[in-house]
Amino acid sequence: MTLVIMAAGMGSRYGGIKQIDPMGPNGEIILDYSVRDAAKAGFDKVVFIIRKDIEEAFKSSIGNRFAGKIDVQYAFQELDALPAGYTVPEGREKPWGTGHAILACKDVVNEPFIVINADDFYGSDAFAEGARGLASMDPASLDGFLVSYRLANTLSPHGHVTRGVCETQEGYLSSVTERFKIGRNAEGTVEYYDGDTPMPLTGEERASMNFWGFSPALFQALEERFTAFLAENGTGLKTEYLIPSEVDSLIQAGKMKVTVRSTDASWFGVTYPEDKPAVKAALAALVEDGTYPSPLW
Fold first, then answer.
1. How many CA atoms lie within 13 A of 62 on its CB side?
2. How far apart are CA 278 and CA 268, in angstroms?
3. What are the DSSP E strand ranges found in 195-235?
4. CA–CA dist 89, 93 (Å, integer)
């Protein structure tokens, strides 16, 4: 089984690939836990999607630590990786989003795969659920799955977040709606803002945290749709070809079904600087209760 990790933006997000903050008790970064949880769930291959300009730094500071533990391969998301007839508009600096990132690994992934973000902590249960999903997947089918989280388990106590809230029908994803400024109010109730108006949520809604299961059939669909995207948006300096919106479009067109699988794990991430102590404390607690060894590897 293959785990694909979108890491092309790590250098820009952290101000330099070597400055990724340690979070675990022995200097582990969040990505260490994802790879270990995947290996424990039976994954035997990890593909890091990175940029060429951070290749050496990424391999020396991150990728090489997994040597001998899991098969490590690389794919490169480059700004100028475009279909014939298209060029990068003058002034554009960043690649074209998560859909473009996944396309970058089409030559090194020929089997069903999980794709995740590099800087999110998903929890071991999510990878076990993902492994179960891959085991039942038809490699020739475009259908996939999403491992979803209880919305309340994805919030930050230090500010609002944006989340994709899932709507389901008979176990399948029918839509993902971006909700903005989600958090708890003074009474502890979960809510989001529609403009300036607070709207109630239960906290039990299922949230997407970009933990997808896909078959290799997705690559052809993404290639075709990327060309159409560029025809309409190719002159934009910040337009992004995003996997959630592309999956949603395929669902609405009746070309794809996405099963919504669930985990009760808590998602961790550093949305705000104030989140870092809480993430470190949570990881320390998971070591203390025996969920993870220390050191991790």
1. 34
2. 9
3. 197-200, 206-214
4. 9
Name the residue among 121, 247, 122 with its Cα closest to residue 176: 247
- Domains contained in the chain, CATH given: 2-150+207-288 (3.90.550.10)
Burial 217-237 (b: 16+ CB within 10 A, else e): bbbebbeebbeebbeeebeee
Q: Side-chain half-sphere of 105: how many Cα atoms within 13 Å? A: 33
Whole-structure pTM over 0.85, yes or no? yes
Residues forming a β-bridge with 150: 206
Query: Dmax over Cα atoms in the chain, in whole Å?
Result: 56
Cα separation, 60 vs 138, in Å, equals 36
Among 213, 218, 224, residue whose Cα is nearest residue 258: 213
- Residue-wise pLDDT tens for the chain (297 aa)? 999 999 987 655 555 665 577 889 998 999 999 999 999 999 999 999 999 988 998 898 888 889 889 999 999 999 898 998 889 999 998 888 899 999 999 999 999 999 999 888 999 999 999 999 999 999 999 999 999 999 999 988 888 888 889 999 999 999 888 888 999 999 999 999 999 999 999 999 999 999 999 999 999 999 999 999 999 988 899 888 888 888 988 999 999 999 999 998 888 877 777 778 888 999 999 999 999 998 888
Does residue 19 contact residue 11 with C-beta atoms inside 8 Å?
no
What are the φ and ψ backbone dihedral angles of 49, each rounded to 5 degrees? -90, 115
Cα–Cα distance for residue pair 247/97, rounded to 1 Å: 14
Task: Show the CA angle centred on residue 290, arms to residues 277 and 270, nearest 5°.
Answer: 25
Give the other-Cβ count within 10 Å of 187's Cβ: 6
Helices (H) and strands (E) in the chain, counts: 8, 11
Contact 139, 215 (CB under 8 A): yes
180 DSSP assignment: E
- What lies within 8 Å, CB to CB, of 155 at 6+ separation is 161, 182, 183, 184, 190
